[in-house]
Amino acid sequence: MKILMYSVRDDEKAAIKNWADKHQVQIDTIAQALHLTTAHQAEGYDGIVIQQRAKVEDGVYPILQQAGLQQIASRTAGYDVINLALAAASGLKVTNVPAYSPHSVAELALTHTLRLIRNLELFDFRSAKQDFRWEGLQAKEIHSLTVGIIGAGRIGGTTAKLFQALGARVIAYDLKERDELKSILTYTSKEELLQQADVVCLHVDLNPTSENLMDEAAFALMKPTAYLVNECRGPVVNTPALIKALKAHQLAGAALDTLTGEEKFFNVDLTGKELPSKELIELRAMPNVIITPHIGFYTNIAVQNMVDISLDDTLAILQGKKSSHEITA
């Protein structure tokens, strides 16, 4: 049995080798993503595993089908880069890793929130100019805040537990209410959450119903003293509307671990080069905005789990078994 893994980073290779040795399966890796120019490299392999932000072109699926492949495993939670209908039409089963480490993303949400409410970005901005005054930057204590979680699933639920443990009041909006969370949070409507929350944390999947979930109308409901924290997917936030709201002081700041069009600049060294996004340039110029390059997943445990679970799913399908992480259109 042979498996090809696309978009492999150096920090994943030890985990991949451990899994390959344990299961006695040959695994080859390439640094490139799955595209029309690299799809032919899957010929001769039994399975493939991918991780990428750019969409898989429609022409890739028949190439994989012709190569005799049965599946595509994404070692990420998001799978919007894959056309599920075309994959199914080409006889390809699709799997993802829905919960590689809820703590990894939740802890970043907490970290971002703490930096925002302590005005650390603004202090850094002043310090860089040798201005070491405190004036106007009095912080807030987290136990005095109401934190709103939009999307209280595995990650959102873990985030809620962290904030509740620190004494914050936690409210949540989700189409599916979980009984096990009701002792630590109060479910409410999206509108009520936006009106009440001092911090709004986004933890939803990207789908047609969540795209542009945070738009001009949503920002208009938020307190001018509130913060937005996005740890899920870029298109969940309408970026022009966010920029407009920040400029109009409709909210106090934002922490963004993901942005629309991020495949053009995140995890890319653009030192000394012109940034490819006008919106990114505008956001970076704002001292009350924190931008991190989609690193919510990037911990030792999460990377190990992403490798192990995606390969476990691939092996299961190749052995004629069913994966619990299989996604259908």
TrEMBL record:
Keyword annotations of the record: NAD, Oxidoreductase
Entries under Pfam families matching the protein: 2-Hacid_dh (PF00389), 2-Hacid_dh_C (PF02826)
SUPFAM superfamilies: Formate/glycerate dehydrogenase catalytic domain-like, NAD(P)-binding Rossmann-fold domains
Residues of the D-isomer specific 2-hydroxyacid dehydrogenase catalytic domain: 4-327
Start and end residues of each D-isomer specific 2-hydroxyacid dehydrogenase NAD-binding domain: 111-296
InterPro entries: D-isomer_2_OHA_DH_cat_dom, D-isomer_DH_CS, D-isomer_DH_CS1, D-isomer_DH_NAD-bd, D-LDH-like, NAD(P)-bd_dom_sf
GO terms for MF: D-lactate dehydrogenase (NAD+) activity; NAD binding
PANTHER family the record matches: 2-HYDROXYACID DEHYDROGENASE HOMOLOG 1-RELATED
Family, per entry: Belongs to the D-isomer specific 2-hydroxyacid dehydrogenase family.
Name by which UniProt lists this protein: D-lactate dehydrogenase
Organism this protein belongs to: Liquorilactobacillus ghanensis DSM 18630
